[in-house]
Protein backbone atom coordinates (compact mmCIF):
# COMPACT_ATOMS: atom_id res chain seq x y z
CA UNK A 1 0.00 0.00 0.00
CA UNK A 2 2.80 2.44 0.87
CA UNK A 3 4.55 1.74 -2.42
CA UNK A 4 1.40 2.47 -4.42
CA UNK A 5 0.98 5.87 -2.71
CA UNK A 6 4.57 7.01 -3.42
CA UNK A 7 4.28 6.53 -7.17
CA UNK A 8 1.72 9.33 -7.76
CA UNK A 9 3.77 11.68 -5.61
CA UNK A 10 6.92 10.99 -7.70
CA UNK A 11 5.00 11.53 -10.90
CA UNK A 12 3.68 14.87 -9.64
CA UNK A 13 7.19 16.00 -8.76
CA UNK A 14 8.41 15.03 -12.23
CA UNK A 15 5.54 16.91 -13.87
CA UNK A 16 6.22 19.97 -11.72
CA UNK A 17 9.91 19.87 -12.67
CA UNK A 18 9.04 19.55 -16.35
CA UNK A 19 6.59 22.45 -16.09
CA UNK A 20 9.21 24.56 -14.37
CA UNK A 21 11.72 23.80 -17.14
CA UNK A 22 9.13 24.75 -19.78
CA UNK A 23 8.40 28.02 -17.99
CA UNK A 24 12.12 28.83 -17.77
CA UNK A 25 12.55 28.00 -21.46
CA UNK A 26 9.58 30.17 -22.42
CA UNK A 27 10.82 33.08 -20.32
CA UNK A 28 14.33 32.76 -21.78
CA UNK A 29 12.89 32.66 -25.30
CA UNK A 30 10.76 35.73 -24.71
CA UNK A 31 13.67 37.55 -23.11
CA UNK A 32 15.94 36.68 -26.05
CA UNK A 33 13.28 37.87 -28.50
CA UNK A 34 12.93 41.14 -26.60
CA UNK A 35 16.70 41.65 -26.54
CA UNK A 36 16.92 40.86 -30.29
CA UNK A 37 14.10 43.28 -31.10
CA UNK A 38 15.80 45.99 -29.05
CA UNK A 39 19.13 45.32 -30.78
CA UNK A 40 17.47 45.33 -34.20
CA UNK A 41 15.68 48.61 -33.47
CA UNK A 42 18.97 50.17 -32.37
CA UNK A 43 20.72 48.93 -35.54
CA UNK A 44 17.92 50.25 -37.78
CA UNK A 45 18.01 53.60 -36.02
CA UNK A 46 21.79 53.79 -36.33
CA UNK A 47 21.65 52.88 -40.03
CA UNK A 48 18.97 55.49 -40.70
CA UNK A 49 20.93 58.13 -38.79
CA UNK A 50 24.05 57.23 -40.74
CA UNK A 51 22.14 57.39 -44.05
CA UNK A 52 20.80 60.86 -43.25
CA UNK A 53 24.23 62.07 -42.14
CA UNK A 54 25.83 60.71 -45.31
CA UNK A 55 23.17 62.36 -47.47
CA UNK A 56 23.73 65.76 -45.85
CA UNK A 57 27.52 65.49 -46.12
CA UNK A 58 27.39 64.46 -49.79
CA UNK A 59 25.00 67.30 -50.56
CA UNK A 60 27.35 69.71 -48.81
CA UNK A 61 30.31 68.38 -50.79
CA UNK A 62 28.42 68.88 -54.05
CA UNK A 63 27.51 72.44 -53.07
CA UNK A 64 31.16 73.05 -52.26
CA UNK A 65 32.16 71.82 -55.73
CA UNK A 66 29.55 74.08 -57.31
CA UNK A 67 30.96 77.04 -55.37
CA UNK A 68 34.48 76.29 -56.62
CA UNK A 69 33.25 76.14 -60.23
CA UNK A 70 31.31 79.37 -59.82
CA UNK A 71 34.34 81.18 -58.43
CA UNK A 72 36.42 79.77 -61.27
CA UNK A 73 33.88 81.13 -63.77
CA UNK A 74 34.05 84.51 -62.05
CA UNK A 75 37.83 84.52 -62.32
CA UNK A 76 37.78 83.42 -65.96
CA UNK A 77 35.27 86.13 -66.81
CA UNK A 78 37.41 88.80 -65.22
CA UNK A 79 40.73 87.57 -66.60
CA UNK A 80 39.69 85.86 -69.82
CA UNK A 81 41.53 82.69 -68.81
CA UNK A 82 40.63 79.31 -70.22
CA UNK A 83 39.74 76.14 -68.29
CA UNK A 84 42.77 73.90 -67.83
CA UNK A 85 44.17 71.23 -65.52
CA UNK A 86 46.21 73.71 -63.48
CA UNK A 87 43.13 75.34 -61.91
CA UNK A 88 41.88 74.65 -58.37
CA UNK A 89 38.84 72.64 -59.54
CA UNK A 90 41.19 70.09 -61.17
CA UNK A 91 43.06 69.35 -57.92
CA UNK A 92 41.70 66.17 -56.30
CA UNK A 93 40.83 66.14 -52.61
CA UNK A 94 42.72 63.41 -50.80
CA UNK A 95 40.91 61.59 -48.02
CA UNK A 96 40.70 63.75 -44.92
CA UNK A 97 38.67 63.66 -41.74
CA UNK A 98 35.62 65.87 -41.83
CA UNK A 99 36.54 67.36 -38.46
CA UNK A 100 39.59 69.01 -40.04
CA UNK A 101 37.29 71.02 -42.31
CA UNK A 102 34.99 71.92 -39.43
CA UNK A 103 37.94 73.00 -37.29
CA UNK A 104 39.03 75.40 -40.02
CA UNK A 105 35.57 77.00 -40.05
CA UNK A 106 35.58 80.05 -37.79
CA UNK A 107 31.79 79.85 -37.51
CA UNK A 108 31.94 76.32 -36.14
CA UNK A 109 30.86 76.31 -32.49
CA UNK A 110 32.15 72.82 -31.69
CA UNK A 111 34.87 72.92 -29.02
CA UNK A 112 35.73 69.26 -28.99
CA UNK A 113 36.72 66.73 -31.63
CA UNK A 114 34.45 64.26 -29.85
CA UNK A 115 31.43 66.27 -31.02
CA UNK A 116 32.40 65.82 -34.68
CA UNK A 117 31.42 63.01 -36.98
CA UNK A 118 33.97 60.20 -37.47
CA UNK A 119 33.72 60.75 -41.21
CA UNK A 120 36.40 60.80 -43.91
CA UNK A 121 35.82 62.43 -47.29
CA UNK A 122 37.66 62.50 -50.59
CA UNK A 123 36.69 63.56 -54.08
CA UNK A 124 37.59 65.05 -57.41
CA UNK A 125 36.16 67.09 -60.26
CA UNK A 126 36.83 66.34 -63.89
CA UNK A 127 36.05 68.16 -67.10
CA UNK A 128 33.29 66.22 -68.86
CA UNK A 129 34.23 68.03 -72.07
CA UNK A 130 37.69 66.51 -71.97
CA UNK A 131 36.10 63.53 -73.72
CA UNK A 132 34.28 63.06 -77.02
CA UNK A 133 30.50 63.21 -76.65
CA UNK A 134 28.90 60.08 -78.12
CA UNK A 135 25.62 61.90 -78.75
CA UNK A 136 27.47 64.27 -81.11
CA UNK A 137 27.45 61.43 -83.64
CA UNK A 138 23.97 62.52 -84.72
CA UNK A 139 22.73 66.08 -85.15
CA UNK A 140 19.42 67.78 -85.83
CA UNK A 141 18.90 70.10 -88.78
CA UNK A 142 15.96 72.35 -89.54
CA UNK A 143 13.26 73.35 -87.09
CA UNK A 144 9.66 72.53 -86.31
CA UNK A 145 8.06 70.00 -88.66
CA UNK A 146 11.11 70.17 -90.92
CA UNK A 147 13.50 68.95 -88.22
CA UNK A 148 15.61 66.03 -89.39
CA UNK A 149 18.27 63.89 -87.78
CA UNK A 150 21.44 62.97 -89.63
CA UNK A 151 24.90 61.63 -88.97
CA UNK A 152 27.53 64.28 -88.16
CA UNK A 153 30.46 63.61 -90.54
CA UNK A 154 33.19 65.36 -88.47
CA UNK A 155 32.17 63.52 -85.30
CA UNK A 156 31.89 60.20 -87.13
CA UNK A 157 35.42 60.72 -88.47
CA UNK A 158 36.67 61.46 -84.94
CA UNK A 159 35.07 58.32 -83.48
CA UNK A 160 36.31 56.21 -86.38
CA UNK A 161 39.88 57.36 -85.72
CA UNK A 162 39.47 56.79 -81.97
CA UNK A 163 38.23 53.25 -82.58
CA UNK A 164 41.30 52.65 -84.73
CA UNK A 165 43.64 54.04 -82.09
CA UNK A 166 42.09 51.80 -79.44
CA UNK A 167 41.89 48.77 -81.76
CA UNK A 168 38.13 48.40 -81.39
CA UNK A 169 35.88 46.83 -84.08
CA UNK A 170 34.52 49.23 -86.69
CA UNK A 171 31.31 47.21 -86.99
CA UNK A 172 30.48 48.07 -83.38
CA UNK A 173 30.79 51.79 -84.13
CA UNK A 174 28.58 51.39 -87.20
CA UNK A 175 25.92 49.69 -85.07
CA UNK A 176 26.15 52.45 -82.46
CA UNK A 177 25.64 55.18 -85.06
CA UNK A 178 22.73 53.30 -86.64
CA UNK A 179 21.04 52.80 -83.26
CA UNK A 180 21.47 56.47 -82.31
CA UNK A 181 20.08 57.55 -85.68
CA UNK A 182 17.04 55.25 -85.52
CA UNK A 183 16.22 56.17 -81.93
CA UNK A 184 16.58 59.91 -82.59
CA UNK A 185 14.38 59.72 -85.70
CA UNK A 186 11.64 57.86 -83.86
CA UNK A 187 11.81 60.40 -81.04
CA UNK A 188 11.05 63.17 -83.54
CA UNK A 189 8.43 61.51 -85.72
CA UNK A 190 6.73 58.63 -83.91
CA UNK A 191 4.60 59.30 -80.80
CA UNK A 192 4.11 55.57 -80.22
CA UNK A 193 6.32 53.53 -77.87
CA UNK A 194 9.66 53.02 -79.56
CA UNK A 195 10.94 49.52 -80.38
CA UNK A 196 14.49 50.86 -80.16
CA UNK A 197 16.52 51.45 -76.96
CA UNK A 198 16.21 54.77 -75.16
CA UNK A 199 18.85 57.41 -75.77
CA UNK A 200 21.56 56.97 -73.13
CA UNK A 201 22.09 59.59 -70.45
CA UNK A 202 25.16 57.93 -68.84
CA UNK A 203 28.29 56.53 -70.45
CA UNK A 204 27.61 52.98 -69.21
CA UNK A 205 24.25 53.06 -70.98
CA UNK A 206 26.01 52.95 -74.35
CA UNK A 207 25.83 49.22 -73.74
CA UNK A 208 22.12 49.52 -74.62
CA UNK A 209 23.21 50.38 -78.16
CA UNK A 210 25.52 47.43 -78.61
CA UNK A 211 28.84 48.71 -77.23
CA UNK A 212 30.57 45.72 -75.65
CA UNK A 213 31.92 45.74 -72.07
CA UNK A 214 35.47 45.53 -73.42
CA UNK A 215 34.89 48.59 -75.59
CA UNK A 216 33.24 50.48 -72.74
CA UNK A 217 36.35 49.91 -70.63
CA UNK A 218 38.66 51.07 -73.43
CA UNK A 219 36.53 54.08 -74.37
CA UNK A 220 35.75 55.36 -70.86
CA UNK A 221 38.80 57.67 -70.51
CA UNK A 222 38.06 59.30 -73.88
CA UNK A 223 34.26 59.21 -74.42
CA UNK A 224 31.30 60.57 -72.47
CA UNK A 225 27.55 61.10 -72.86
CA UNK A 226 26.27 64.65 -72.35
CA UNK A 227 22.68 65.86 -72.66
CA UNK A 228 23.44 68.24 -75.53
CA UNK A 229 26.00 68.79 -78.24
CA UNK A 230 29.34 69.79 -76.76
CA UNK A 231 32.81 70.80 -77.82
CA UNK A 232 36.10 69.15 -76.86
CA UNK A 233 38.26 71.19 -74.48
CA UNK A 234 41.75 71.20 -75.98
CA UNK A 235 43.29 72.00 -72.59
CA UNK A 236 41.92 68.93 -70.81
CA UNK A 237 41.42 66.28 -73.50
CA UNK A 238 43.52 63.11 -73.54
CA UNK A 239 46.09 62.56 -76.27
CA UNK A 240 43.82 59.95 -77.87
CA UNK A 241 40.83 62.34 -77.91
CA UNK A 242 42.99 65.12 -79.38
CA UNK A 243 44.38 62.89 -82.09
CA UNK A 244 40.93 61.56 -82.96
CA UNK A 245 39.32 64.99 -83.05
CA UNK A 246 41.98 66.84 -85.06
CA UNK A 247 42.57 65.50 -88.61
CA UNK A 248 46.23 64.98 -89.42
CA UNK A 249 47.38 64.93 -85.78
CA UNK A 250 48.97 61.59 -84.93
CA UNK A 251 49.13 60.11 -81.44
CA UNK A 252 52.81 60.97 -80.87
CA UNK A 253 52.20 64.62 -81.74
CA UNK A 254 49.13 64.66 -79.47
CA UNK A 255 51.13 63.24 -76.56
CA UNK A 256 53.80 65.91 -77.02
CA UNK A 257 51.06 68.54 -77.13
CA UNK A 258 49.65 67.26 -73.82
CA UNK A 259 53.08 67.59 -72.22
CA UNK A 260 53.58 71.14 -73.52
CA UNK A 261 50.16 72.43 -72.51
CA UNK A 262 50.76 71.37 -68.88
CA UNK A 263 53.12 74.36 -68.59
CA UNK A 264 51.42 76.59 -71.13
CA UNK A 265 47.68 75.98 -71.59
CA UNK A 266 45.89 77.26 -74.69
CA UNK A 267 44.31 80.67 -74.08
CA UNK A 268 42.04 80.66 -77.13
CA UNK A 269 41.39 78.76 -80.37
CA UNK A 270 43.64 80.95 -82.57
CA UNK A 271 46.49 80.30 -80.14
CA UNK A 272 45.76 76.57 -80.27
CA UNK A 273 45.73 76.60 -84.05
CA UNK A 274 49.17 78.23 -84.05
CA UNK A 275 50.66 75.60 -81.73
CA UNK A 276 49.02 72.39 -83.04
CA UNK A 277 51.04 70.85 -85.90
CA UNK A 278 49.23 71.21 -89.21
CA UNK A 279 46.13 72.76 -87.65
CA UNK A 280 43.92 75.10 -89.68
CA UNK A 281 40.70 76.98 -89.04
CA UNK A 282 38.87 74.00 -90.54
CA UNK A 283 40.49 71.25 -88.47
CA UNK A 284 40.42 73.23 -85.21
CA UNK A 285 37.12 75.12 -85.12
CA UNK A 286 34.54 76.43 -82.67
CA UNK A 287 31.95 73.82 -83.71
CA UNK A 288 34.10 70.98 -82.39
CA UNK A 289 36.70 72.54 -80.09
CA UNK A 290 37.06 75.07 -77.31
CA UNK A 291 39.38 76.00 -74.45
CA UNK A 292 36.53 76.47 -71.95
CA UNK A 293 34.05 74.00 -70.53
CA UNK A 294 30.50 74.00 -69.21
CA UNK A 295 30.00 70.39 -68.11
CA UNK A 296 31.88 68.89 -65.16
CA UNK A 297 31.67 65.61 -63.28
CA UNK A 298 31.90 65.58 -59.50
CA UNK A 299 32.88 62.41 -57.61
CA UNK A 300 32.66 62.29 -53.82
CA UNK A 301 33.62 59.35 -51.60
CA UNK A 302 32.50 59.32 -47.98
CA UNK A 303 33.70 56.84 -45.34
CA UNK A 304 31.46 56.97 -42.30
CA UNK A 305 32.49 54.39 -39.71
CA UNK A 306 32.63 51.12 -41.68
CA UNK A 307 30.31 52.28 -44.46
CA UNK A 308 31.62 53.72 -47.73
CA UNK A 309 29.31 55.77 -49.94
CA UNK A 310 30.27 57.14 -53.34
CA UNK A 311 28.28 59.62 -55.40
CA UNK A 312 28.75 60.83 -58.98
CA UNK A 313 27.13 64.01 -60.31
CA UNK A 314 27.04 65.93 -63.56
CA UNK A 315 26.86 69.72 -63.27
CA UNK A 316 26.53 72.34 -65.98
CA UNK A 317 27.88 75.87 -65.69
CA UNK A 318 26.11 78.72 -67.46
CA UNK A 319 27.84 81.94 -66.56
CA UNK A 320 27.92 82.04 -62.76
CA UNK A 321 25.06 79.56 -62.40
CA UNK A 322 26.11 75.97 -61.71
CA UNK A 323 23.21 73.49 -61.83
CA UNK A 324 23.06 69.75 -61.20
CA UNK A 325 21.89 67.63 -64.14
CA UNK A 326 21.95 64.27 -62.37
CA UNK A 327 23.22 62.55 -59.24
CA UNK A 328 23.68 58.86 -58.61
CA UNK A 329 25.01 56.64 -55.84
CA UNK A 330 27.38 53.93 -56.97
CA UNK A 331 28.71 50.78 -55.36
CA UNK A 332 31.89 51.45 -53.44
CA UNK A 333 34.43 49.24 -51.72
CA UNK A 334 35.87 50.09 -48.31
TrEMBL record:
PANTHER family: TYPE II SECRETION SYSTEM PROTEIN K, TYPE II SECRETION SYSTEM PROTEIN K-RELATED
Alphabetical keyword list: Cell inner membrane, Cell membrane, Membrane, Transport
GO CC annotations on file: plasma membrane
Protein location: Cell inner membrane
InterPro entries per record: GspK, T2SSK_SAM-like_2nd
Keyword Cell membrane: yes
Domain T2SS protein K second SAM-like: residue ranges: 232-292
Species lineage: Bacteria, Pseudomonadati, Pseudomonadota, Betaproteobacteria, Burkholderiales
Pfam families xref list: T2SSK
Gene3D superfamilies: GSPII I/J protein-like (3.30.1300.30)
Family membership noted in the UniProt record: Belongs to the GSP K family.
BP-aspect Gene Ontology terms: protein secretion
Organism: Hydrogenophaga aromaticivorans
Protein name: Type II secretion system protein K
